[in-house]
Design goal:
The protein is mainly α. The protein is built from 4 helices and no strands. Helix 2 packs across helix 3.
Length: 131
C-alpha cells in the first residue's frame, strides 16, 4: 500500500479585478444608499424629524458633519471599487485609490470616535440624577 503526501497548493498572489459576489453587493449598496443618507441628513438639519437628529444637529453639529463626511468618503471608496470592478478605471489605480481615500477615512474615523466620546460624556453630565 502506497501512501502519498498531499501538500497544499500555494495561494495565488495576484489580485483579481473582480469583486466577489458579496463584495459586489456590499459595494453596490454602499454606493447607492450612503449618498442618499448624506443628502437626506443634510436636508433635514434645519428641521429634524427625529429626537436623535434634533439632538445631534442642535448640540453636536460638528459630530454630525464629520460623520456625514466619513459616510461620503466611504461612498467614494465603494464607487472606486465598483469602477475598478467594471473596468471604468484601470486596475493598477486601486492601490492609489486606497491611499488617497484611506488616509482621510482613517482621520475622519478617529475624529468621529473622539467627537462621539465627547458627546456621550457631555450628555451623561447633563442627565439628571435619579434619587
Amino acid at each position: 500500500m502506497e501512501r502519498r503526501i498531499v501538500l497544499p497548493q500555494p495561494m495565488e498572489t495576484h489580485m483579481s479585478n473582480e469583486l466577489g459576489s458579496y463584495d459586489l453587493i456590499v459595494s453596490l449598496l454602499c454606493g447607492l444608499f450612503l449618498p442618499l443618507i448624506v443628502v437626506l441628513n443634510l436636508r433635514e438639519r434645519t428641521a429634524p424629524s427625529t429626537p436623535m437628529s434634533a439632538y445631534l444637529w442642535g448640540r453636536e453639529p460638528t459630530l454630525s458633519l464629520v460623520g456625514l463626511a466619513f459616510l461620503s468618503v466611504l461612498a467614494l471608496f465603494a464607487w472606486g471599487e465598483l469602477a475598478v470592478h467594471f473596468g471604468v478605471v484601470a486596475a493598477n489605480l486601486r492601490d492609489h485609490l486606497a491611499l488617497v481615500l484611506g488616509v482621510p477615512m482613517a482621520i475622519l474615523a478617529f475624529a468621529v470616535l473622539i467627537l462621539a466620546t465627547r458627546a456621550v460624556y457631555r450628555s451623561l453630565r447633563r442627565a439628571p440624577t435619579a434619587r
